[in-house]
């Protein structure tokens, strides 16, 4: 009986010891797995967002970049950093490509416009060349900035010429600081049609607006008309002048601009300035206009 009691007591003590041991042992918590974007992903997403945010008129379309960026952000939140970084890089690339393609398209249009102007000075020609080089190098934004500023400048470039005694539109156009080509006198007439009643009649001290960089197409039209205007004495060409001004009289498609005469010399059929210039200073000055029997303008460079 004593043996049984001792055995029973041992079992009880053993059980109690196990219970105490279990009670004093602490279970260590399992560390949580980190989720969300890491630093590299956050930076990649920020870089792509910066490119998208920098897009400005006229090139605000970034293609599929925004959509790809959203997918990158979602992948980053899910902890798939490799995918997130790949999508962010693609978003950045797509945005840069779309923006550059847009600027390249606008730059090519601007280059064509700039090449259509005449009388560019050395600085303007250098900027035109720079824009063309940037286009060749696929640098859309740089080309756009150069060429858009140049075109705006050429479109706005104007000067004022004050008529002096003995002047004519022919003589004014032929001056080296105006067009250097007397055949371009219709350009001045056209730009001052509201203040010149007759192309053959201008007045001393009259201020004329001169477009500094006329378009080649306008120059071609003007020089053709200067050579085909017809009779100019006694305002016989007034009707044809108005027809040319309103566009109903135009050069045939096959017509080619004639070579410009020297700015300092008039055609052989033109009257000499001294023979046509009376001494009265208050009378109007006659403009350049073609002789009736010649395709070459015969200006009267006098006041009368």
Which helices and strands appear, and what pairs or packs with what?
Blueprint lengths: L1 H23 L14 H16 L10 H13 L3 H35 L6 H15 L3 H17 L1 E5 L6 H6 L10 H7 L15 E5 L4 H13 L9 H8 L27 H4 L28
Antiparallel strand pairs: 1-2
Helix pairs in contact: 2-3, 2-4, 3-4, 4-5, 4-6, 5-6
Structure described in brief:
This protein has 304 residues and is mainly alpha-helical.
Number of domains as seen in the coordinates = 2
Individual helix count: 11
Q: For the residues shown, what is the average pLDDT? A: 81
Shape: rod-shaped
Helicity range of the residues? 40-55%
Task: Report the biggest beta sheet as strand number plus sense, adding barrel if it closes.
Answer: 2 strands, antiparallel
Distance between the termini: 160 Å
Determine Rg (CA atoms, Å): 42 Å
How are strands sequenced across the largest beta sheet?
1-2
Poorly predicted regions are: 257-284, 287-304
Sketch the topology as an H/E string, one letter per element.
HHHHHHEHHEHHH
Question: Could you explain the architecture of this structure?
Answer:
The chain is mainly α and 304 residues long. It folds into two domains: 49-153; 158-276, no CATH class. It is 52% helix and 3% strand. Strands 1-2 form a two-stranded antiparallel ribbon. Helix 2 (39-54) packs antiparallel against helix 3 and helix 4 (81-115) packs antiparallel against helix 5. The longest helix is centred in the N-terminal third of the chain and has 35 residues, at 81-115. It starts with a helix and ends in a 28-residue tail after the last helix. The model is unreliable at 257-284 and 287-304 (pLDDT under 50).
């Amino acid at each position: 009986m004593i043996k049984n009691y001792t055995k029973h007591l041992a079992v009880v003590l053993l059980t109690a010891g196990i219970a105490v041991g279990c009670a004093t042992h602490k279970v260590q918590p399992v560390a949580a797995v980190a989720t969300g974007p890491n630093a590299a992903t956050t930076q990649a997403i920020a870089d792509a967002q910066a490119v998208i945010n920098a897009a400005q008129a006229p090139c605000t379309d970034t293609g599929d970049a925004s959509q790809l960026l959203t997918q990158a952000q979602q992948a980053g939140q899910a902890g798939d950093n490799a995918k997130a970084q790949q999508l962010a890089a693609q978003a950045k690339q797509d945005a840069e490509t779309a923006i550059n393609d847009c600027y390249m398209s606008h730059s090519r249009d601007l280059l064509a416009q700039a090449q259509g102007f005449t009388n560019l000075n050395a600085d303007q020609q250098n900027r035109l060349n720079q824009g063309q080089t940037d286009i060749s190098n696929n640098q859309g934004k740089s080309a756009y900035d150069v060429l858009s500023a140049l075109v705006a400048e050429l479109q706005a470039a104007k000067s004022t010429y004050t008529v002096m005694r003995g002047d004519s539109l022919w003589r004014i156009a032929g001056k080296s600081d105006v067009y250097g080509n007397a055949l371009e006198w219709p350009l001045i007439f056209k730009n001052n049609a509201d203040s010149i009643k007759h192309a053959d009649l201008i007045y001393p001290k009259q201020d004329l607006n001169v477009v500094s960089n006329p378009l080649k197409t306008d120059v071609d039209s003007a020089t053709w008309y200067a050579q085909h205007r017809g009779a100019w004495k006694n305002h016989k060409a007034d009707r044809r002048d108005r027809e040319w001004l309103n566009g109903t009289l135009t050069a045939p498609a096959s017509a080619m601009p004639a070579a410009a005469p020297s700015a300092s010399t008039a055609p052989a059929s033109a009257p000499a300035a001294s023979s046509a210039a009376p001494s009265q200073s208050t009378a109007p000055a006659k403009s350049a206009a073609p002789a009736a029997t010649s395709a070459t303008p015969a200006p009267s460079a006098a006041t009368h």
